[in-house]
Amino acid sequence: MKYRFIMLFAITVVVTSTTALQADWASFSNQWKLDYARNRCWPSPFVELDRDSVRNYYHQMTMAGIRLQNTLGENHFHPESHQITRGGEMKVRQILMGSEGRRAVFVLRGLTEDQTEARLQSTRDAVFRLVGDADATEFYVTGNEPIPRPADYIDDIYRSERSSIPAPRLPAAVAP
């Protein structure tokens, strides 16, 4: 018993007199408290990080879709003069009348820098004719062109969808 008391006293003296051990003890104690608090409230602190990562992914997909939707492609410009066509002006009008925050106009890059500048200037002129202010929206040059689809192809899809809808019917009346 006396031996145990002496050993306990010696350990206590060593622990309390050594500053390095006290510093490590404080660090250990603080880390233990932090880990305990994290374990008690898990998974709450980490749920927002997971949600943000998913939202970021969907936000990037949405912005890529908006970019493709608001892109003026090859078919919106004359092949020789690179001036905007009537269809291109209608597309610009559609973009400008779209929802807030999605009004940026993306112009497909030409084969040369002069072609790209002619397309940009023609698009700015079209915006000026439509709105009266060429700075009404932002213009960006892009290299991604949306995949064009012929109007008759879209019409065929729409007609086949409409023809496959069953006729509406009311349920049979139930006698009371």
How is this structure best summarized?
Helices cover 61% and strands 6% of the residues.
Number of strands: 3
**Low-confidence runs (pLDDT<50, min 5 residues)?**
none
The whole-number mean of residue pLDDT values reads: 85
The description of the largest β-sheet is: 3 strands, parallel
Net shape = elongated
Note the total helix count: 6
Strand neighbour order, sheet with most strands: 1-2-3
Please tell me how large the radius of gyration is.
34 Å
Structural summary, described in words:
The model has no long low-confidence stretch (mean pLDDT 85). This protein has a three-stranded parallel sheet. The chain has helices at residues 2-17, 19-41, 44-69, 86-96, 113-131, 151-163, and strands at residues 71-72, 105-108, 139-142. The protein contains six helices and three strands; from the N terminus they run H-H-H-E-H-E-H-E-H. The chain is elongated. With 176 residues, it is mostly helical. The relative contact order is 0.08.
Please render the helix and strand layout as text.
Elements: H1 2-17, H2 19-41, H3 44-69, E1 71-72, H4 86-96, E2 105-108, H5 113-131, E3 139-142, H6 151-163
Parallel strand pairs: 1-2, 2-3
Helix pairs in contact: 4-5
